[in-house]
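Reviewer 2 asked us to include a model.

Predict the structure of this chain.
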Amino acid sequence: MSAQWREQREGGGRFALWLIRFISLHFGRGFGRIWLHPIAIYYFLRRGPERRASRQYLERVTGMPVSHAQVIHHIHCFAATLLDRIFLLAHGDRDFDIEVEGLALLDQTLAKGNGVLLVGSHQGSFEALRAISQRRPDVPLRVVLDKQKTPAMTQLLEALAPQVGARVIDASRDGTSIALAMAEATSKGEMVALLADRARPGEHCRHVEFLGRRAPFPVGPWLMASVLQVPVVLCFGLYMGGNRYKLIFETMADRVQIPRAGRARALDQLISRYAQRLEHYAHVAPYNWFNFYDFWHDDGPHAGMDHIQPSSAGA
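Predicted model (structure tokens):
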């Protein structure tokens, strides 16, 4: 599996993120949004790999050539969700219009008291999910997050919402530590959320159909789900423009069963179903896909081969 996404520089850096934080919190979200267009144009001009990845994805999801303006709009949407992270973390959802679909389903699942594994993706905003969790303060939300990939954003998170930062399960730790932390949380009836559309370097993948071509997806999240034996719910936080977000919860499985015999087929079925839902929401909100690297590329030593071994479930 290519580790291109991990090799990319963190957008901005500590000074830029803290400057955005200062401007936004002191002058308001409206003033902060003024800068999104010049920022998007700057990144379009300066970040060639991300620009090419955006164009590749947009052409796949639209089925036609895309313009420079569409790529800039894609980057602008990403920048808008990054800006909104500051307000969602600092103030919760009070400044936003968040529509929720499937909340009753999530409540019913939580009522069983067995914990829930929320599986998301790099589509839209995961912070919108964190904000909505404030409506259920009785059920803590733990998020599996790679702190080493985005140290500046991690510091900003911990400064703005230390109570949220304290609940992060660091995906850069070893797989056993991650698994124990997730098991401890779900045993208390808590929600644990992770993203399942990017593999860490060296993590094993299965290739399934996604937007017209087979793409690699990590097996770690699904192997972890089979170990935890808790309900799995898919979650999407789509950015709909302005201050509008749409949160969607969908049942994936009451329990994930991956038998030792036929494990490859079971994983392919799970991941294919997950990829189909990603593809569905990519068509619903095409500018919400924020994997700015060649998602379909596999230049590893076993390109084109699938591997199944236990691995960490970090996003």
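The chain is about 45% helix and 15% strand. The first helix runs from residue 4 to 7. We have added this to the supplementary material.
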